[in-house]
Amino acid sequence: MPPKGIAKRRLSNEHQKRQEDIRNESSDDKQSAIIKETTTAEESMAEQQSRLESSRLSKLKTKQPQISEQTATYDNQRQRMRELYQRYKSDRTTRTT
Fold first, then answer.
1. pTM confidence score
2. Which of 3, 20, 31, 75 is disulfide-compatible with 7, CB 3.0–4.6 A?
3. What are the pLDDT digits (tens) for 11-27?
4. Per the record, where are the segments of Low complexity compositional bias (predicted)?
């Protein structure tokens, strides 16, 4: 015979509790999985950011001597052009007179 009255209600209450427990466990598992994924994603983003910063710093360190060399080359060229212009200017004045 199927349960009746109080026994039926007790069974349905127990069934509901079990279903809630199952839902809670699965939601806890889902939440923990989401937390793990988020944590893993944050860690990988942090690693990627640190790698990016270190590569930028290393590039800056390697570019620094090049910049000073370029500046020196530019200054030398400027000085040379200035000297050539002075020579040209003096040659022009001597030719016209």
1. 0.33
2. 3
3. 778 878 888 887 777 77
4. 47-57
